[in-house]
Design goal:
binds nicotinamide-adenine-dinucleotide; two-stranded parallel ribbon; seven-stranded parallel beta sheet; 13 strands; alpha/beta; 42% helix; 351 residues
Length: 351
């Protein structure tokens, strides 16, 4: 079993992935600045995986820190060496992810995402840790020429967030070319939704949510009056945008499969889509949410958002062939789990 450094492990995807990795027997060190998350999320991870404080000291260490802080990163590697259990691999979730904010504050996005990755990779290189899973995004495909989108499609992002993900992938490709000891998987996520079935952890963005399911949840509990649907003239069957929504636990299991694959083989540089291969329109998501929860979601039409695309659907064949992984959970199950999280935590992790 490996010891894995998880950057951004307190976030939405990082917490769910941490559960699967701990359940699979790996030991984790999390570094998170909590800029978009709460330390309570990691307490909940301990609760779900049955780690008492003593066991957690060995299996889930938590470091509050920024990935741009080179001294903090070095201390993690040094402490691990001194423990006699080195860091075997890194899963790099830490970063900023709002398309809207990235258009307003591109420098901040380039600093945290690209410079942050650069700092993390330097620390890995210096400490001879050369196995990495990177949180990439379907955003880097921009406006795809056709769907489903395979990994060979053009990389052509249309916003600053997507540009940072594309730049990091290029940086990783360069590192991989320069040094054949690196084993790297760029996992290109489509649209993660849902929550752990316990309702103890879920998506809890700071400020106003930008993603569909958290907004639907907010409407369902009455924190927002109505769901705004951005455009009904997209080239889809009901005119609303289509996305490939993937349950966050399926996504988490995809990371475990990618880690196993990297650790088993020599030099690799993988780019792999993690999606379901099925597209659902905004209206279909609303309908599934209503079926799953019995709640009615009022909606109104609004103008399309700058930087949006009409349809994105993954071709997940490579993930199945290479990692032996495929998404199992349904859209209704995702909506049900997101709702359980919301109703058990009306204000997210804030108590
Ligand atoms: N959620 C999505 O829809 C989605 C889709 C595609 C890709 N991704 C990528 O997956 C990764 C995780 O996404 P998420 O949804 O869990 O986001 P999140 O915001 O919930 O988690 C990111 C975590 O990183 C931490 N963080 C941010 N900047 C940091 C820094 N400089 N140093 C240390 N920690 C820092 C945050 O506090 C947070 O806990 C991100 O890189 C994101 O771009 C997310």
């Amino acid at each position: 079993m490996a010891r894995v450094l998880i950057s951004g492990g307190a976030g939405f995807i990082g917490t769910h992935a941490s559960i699967v990795l701990l359940e699979n027997g790996h030991d984790l060190v999390v570094i998170d600045s909590f800029v978009n998350s709460s330390p309570i999320a990691l307490q909940r991870v301990k609760e779900i995986t049955g780690l008492n404080e003593l066991k957690a000291q060995q299996r889930l260490k938590v470091v509050e820190g920024d990935i741009r802080d080179k001294a903090a990163l070095q201390k993690i590697f040094t402490d691990a060496n001194n423990d006699g259990k080195i860091i075997d691999a890194v899963i790099h979730f830490a970063g900023l992810k709002s398309v809207k904010d990235s258009i307003k504050s591109p420098l901040n996005y380039w600093d945290v995402n690209v410079n942050g990755s650069c700092c993390l990779l330097s620390a890995m290189q210096e400490n001879k840790c050369r196995t990495l899973i990177f949180s990439s995004s379907a955003t880097l495909y921009g406006k795809p020429k056709s769907v489903p989108i395979s990994e060979t499609a053009a990389i052509d992002p249309i916003n600053a967030y997507g540009n940072t993900k594309a730049a990091i992938e290029k940086m990783l490709a360069d590192i991989s070319t320069a040094d054949s000891d690196w084993r790297i998987a760029c996992l290109r996520y489509f649209n993660p939704i849902g929550a752990h079935a316990s309702g103890l952890i879920g998506e809890d963005p700071r400020g106003t949510p930008n993603n569909l399911l958290p907004i639907i949840n907010q409407v369902a509990i009455g924190h927002q009056k109505v769901l705004k649907i951005y455009g009904n003239k997209w080239p889809t069957k009901d005119g609303t945008c289509i996305r490939d929504y993937i349950h966050v636990m399926d996504l988490a299991e995809g990371h475990a499969a990618a880690l196993d694959s990297l650790l088993q083989k020599e030099h690799q540089f993988l780019t792999v889509n993690l999606g379901t291969g099925k597209g659902h329109s905004v209206l279909e998501v609303v309908n599934s949410f209503e079926i799953a929860t019995g709640k009615k979601i009022p909606f109104e039409l609004s103008t399309p958002r700058y930087g949006d695309v009409g349809i994105t659907i993954a071709d997940p064949t490579k993930a199945k062939n290479l990692l032996g992984w495929e998404a199992k959970r349904s859209l209704v199950e995702s909506c049900k789990d997101a709702w359980t999280w919301q109703t058990s935590n009306m204000n997210g992790y804030q108590q």
